[in-house]
Amino acid sequence: MIIQDAPVDPLSEVLRAAGFNAACSVRLVAGGNWALRFNPTALKFNAVRHGHCWLTPQGEAPIHVHAGDCFIVVGKPFVLSSAPGIPPVDAAEVFGATGLSAHYGDGEDVSLLGGSVALSHADSGDLVCLLPPALVIRADAGAAPMAWLLGQLDREWRDDRPGARAACDDLLRLMFIHALRAHLSQAPSDALGWLAGLNDRPVAAALRVIHADPTRSWRLSELAAVAGLSRAGFAERFKARIGRPPIEYAAVWRMRIAARRVLDGHRSVSAVAQELGFLSDSAFGAAFRRVHGISPGRYRSARGRTA
């Protein structure tokens, strides 16, 4: 079955622009009295398969997590333990050279599956900064999809069939997206920053059309009509939810798409300018510098690309 003209989803577009990837990389089984310190360089996403343990992000209070719970730790050291206050051992020593699986302590009181979530593009900070240091999604909040995904992830990891690693990576991606959805539905608006706009129907309608057609130079009246509000009412509401005026948001998003395409070695800078509706390379360069601070050519070169 071929589905055409699928609706544009702003969160999916933001994740794509941020260079969103996930890799399922570890399984931990632990028992008795134990504590392990992890020192991640990226976002860590983990799911408790069975049992329970304590999660203590650096500088934060301990959090009790149970079977079916998932948690995200945003690029900072954290400790997993059977109880708070146990002196931790460096997890790298326990996982050894392969770093894929470890059994620590006495027995099998708890098991976890997890991996790294990479947001590799320069603009990913706009998303990362909106996540708390540790985001826990409880089993009952994720409902059926998360339970099924966790079970399937566990089966793929255990069976080790052909394509299992790729399947695990994709399942972890889906679980991370469901965790973000749960966060969007549960967190207060003032804790969500611009993500709160996705829960506001008029603002979300405007976001969808901006993301659906990033090459267009949108006018305030057009976006207000999409939102079903007056120009003044829409402008005020959009800025309150997103943190910047709608036309500015559209212009910045256009340049984020431009940055992604500039880094594509198959396109010239002139081709990107034409694709995004600019009448001249100079106009494109000026718009690009306003958002990214450097010219498109220097932006590409700074990231190891040839113009």
UniProtKB/TrEMBL annotation:
Q: Which InterPro entries is this protein grouped with? A: AraC_lig, AraC_XylS_family_regulators, Homeodomain-like_sf, HTH_AraC, HTH_AraC-typ_CS, Tscrpt_reg_AraC-type_HTH
Q: Which organism is it from?
A: Cognatilysobacter xinjiangensis
Recorded protein name is: AraC family transcriptional regulator
Q: What Pfam family does this protein match (any one)?
A: Cupin_6
Keywords from the named record: DNA-binding, Transcription, Transcription regulation
Annotated HTH araC/xylS-type domain ranges read 204-302
Q: Which SUPFAM superfamilies match?
A: Homeodomain-like
Top-level lineage group:
Bacteria
